[in-house]
Amino acid sequence: MTEMIKVGMADLNVCHAPDAITTLGLGSCVGVALYDKTSQIAGLVHVMLPDSTQVRQNQNRAKFADTGIDYLIEMMVQKGANRRNLTAKIAGGAQMFAFSGNSDMLRVGERNVEAVKKKLNQLGIRLLAEDTGLNFGRTVEFYPENGDFVIKSVGKPIRTI
Amino acid sequence: MQSNGNDSIDNIEFDVLTEIGNIGAGNATTALSQLINTKIDMRVPQVKMLSFAELAEIIGGAETLVAGILLSLSDDIDGQLLFVLESKDARMLVHQLLGFGDMESKEFSDIEVSALQEIGNIISGAYLSAISSLTGMSISVSVPSLAFDMAGAILSVPAIEFGKLGDEALLIETQFTDLDVDISGYFILIPTMESYVRILKSLGLR
Asked: Which residue range is the domain that position B154 belongs to?
């Protein structure tokens, strides 16, 4: 039987086909799915904040874009993925509430997306597709069998990227 | 709970924040009762320090539809106040206020949205004025911003702010009773780090 592995907020996990991996209700957080097609291993991290160096309480590595992606790669390599094969798909980073003004508190979704892209770029991991920004929540599911990243939102058709 | 450094909350501070939450929620209940012209009672609010994993679960899971009303705070306290309730409870409240409305509809009409915004405004205002008189701090609030979405997505907003301090969020659950059905509302006060320290100082802690 295939399993759907759940990843919580500021959390991460790895799965192998035919299992799939999901995180529910991404808002301003970003879901980063990494994938090694050859070994059919996928990992998903639910990133909350862009930069671990800006926060004193930064022991939870999965919480931040910079350390979370590193941590996920370590975990995937341990399970047999090849670092050089990794590709990425990302979703989330919405601005859930509309406000005039541009306070940092509200732009965090955008900053999360930027930080994730910067980190992927530094690591030489190709970003194949994204569904980011705007003002709605997203539930995401990644299927290592075929590399599909399925995105569900309230009142919107299901998208596969 | 840890008490290493300024960024975390110790037990006494937790008790104080709990009390602030109690008083705020009590005031909010009175305001709501007057607004919809119905006697409303409040159960003793539950103040909880929740891990991020538990946060969405408490409101029925990350994919439960909720309404969130967010106010931006400035002046002595910078930050945000979020009031969250399940979508079906929001509809119930709006119905009470307007005296009409389609209880089965999935969407909120324009007038229902403004009614909800007004409800959010009034009860959040009451909540904040209790905190303001308790601490002697002045708090200015923005026009409320309203969003309907999955609980996980709405709660990511406060979770991210708490995420800068640690791995838990402080949530105050208020149950309004004596209506046709019980309604649960959740207040989440999200002061910035600096404001948080100012609140505790104003109360003689730190």
From this structure: 11-202
